[in-house]
């Protein structure tokens, strides 16, 4: 099976460039932008050799997993583009709903969104999302929305649980998942509407939020904040009620839940 866009995504002006193996789909996408690509281009592969996660961490994509990046070329504020990670998380969750519906054992699986950029299944990490940007001419910028999904395998040596489609008992392959993702992205991106629909995206995201109402710790640089995860605010910042009863809004940090919160973030 080969990669393809959903019919509605194709009619919506999205395009596709697929590779057997790639260094980094984000890097390819940003290179295309610098060469004049107008955007709405998906760059996909089942093997990525030099992928990156947040804060420069490596993100391995062994053969059979999914590495997908959407290139957008925009003119609105770069701050607005930062919320596209929430659009990506929702879109992948919707795609998972579609592909899991064909596997009875996964019909009740809990698909959760972990702030700011992970997708979990029954508490284990299935996917990570990374946004990268570069400035172009004429007040434009390129944004690469990178989505990596564990399809046939997942890393074992992590300080948190991880999983893959294969480990979950799903026979879905990368091509089938991408087909569903290209369709669900089109819907959520239209709802986001250059940031004007962020309030609707926020409410949908909160419906799937992992750890909401529970104990969390958040590492922000060299500081650790502990408390209860209350919500994400109108700018999609993480809101925690700390041990002193104060509300703290966090724009960037590493979140740990429940019993592992103290051990992992201490």
UniProtKB/TrEMBL annotation:
Name of one Pfam family that matches: BPL_C
Chain ranges of the BPL/LPL catalytic domain: 13-193
Entry keyword ATP-binding: yes
A GO CC term assigned to this protein in UniProt: cytoplasm
Enzyme class: ligase
Enzyme Commission number(s) from the entry: 6.3.4.15
Molecular function terms, GO-annotated: ATP binding; biotin--[biotin carboxyl-carrier protein] ligase activity
Transcription regulation recorded as keyword: no
Enzymatic reactions: biotin + L-lysyl-[protein] + ATP = N(6)-biotinyl-L-lysyl-[protein] + AMP + diphosphate + H(+)
Keywords, comma-separated and alphabetical: ATP-binding, Biotin, Ligase, Nucleotide-binding
Record-given protein name: biotin--[biotin carboxyl-carrier protein] ligase
């Amino acid at each position: 099976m080969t990669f393809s866009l959903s019919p509605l995504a194709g009619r919506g002006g999205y395009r596709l460039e697929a590779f057997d193996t790639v260094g980094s789909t984000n890097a390819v996408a940003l290179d295309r932008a610098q060469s004049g690509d107008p955007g709405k281009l998906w760059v996909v592969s089942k093997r990525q050799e030099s992928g990156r996660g947040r804060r420069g961490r490596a993100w391995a994509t062994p053969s059979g997993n999914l590495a997908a990046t959407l290139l957008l070329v925009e003119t609105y504020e770069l701050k607005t583009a930062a919320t596209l990670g929430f659009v990506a998380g929702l879109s992948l969750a919707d795609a998972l709903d579609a592909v899991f519906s064909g596997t009875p054992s996964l019909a009740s699986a809990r698909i959760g969104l972990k702030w700011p950029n992970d997708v979990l299944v029954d508490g284990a990490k299935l996917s990570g999302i990374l946004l990268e940007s570069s400035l172009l001419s004429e007040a434009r910028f390129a944004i690469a929305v990178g989505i990596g999904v564990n399809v046939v395998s997942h890393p074992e040596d992590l300080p948190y649980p991880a999983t893959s489609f294969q480990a979950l008992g799903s026979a879905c392959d990368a091509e089938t998942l991408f087909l569903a993702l290209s369709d669900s992205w089109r819907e959520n991106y239209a709802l986001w509407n250059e940031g004007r629909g962020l309030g609707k995206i926020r409410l949908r995201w909160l419906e799937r939020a992992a750890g909401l109402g529970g104990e969390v710790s958040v590492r922000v640089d060299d500081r650790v904040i502990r408390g209860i995860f209350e919500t994400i605010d109108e700018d999609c910042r993480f809101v925690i009620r700390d041990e002193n009863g104060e509300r703290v809004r966090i724009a960037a940090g590493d979140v740990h839940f429940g019993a592992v919160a103290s051990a992992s973030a201490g």
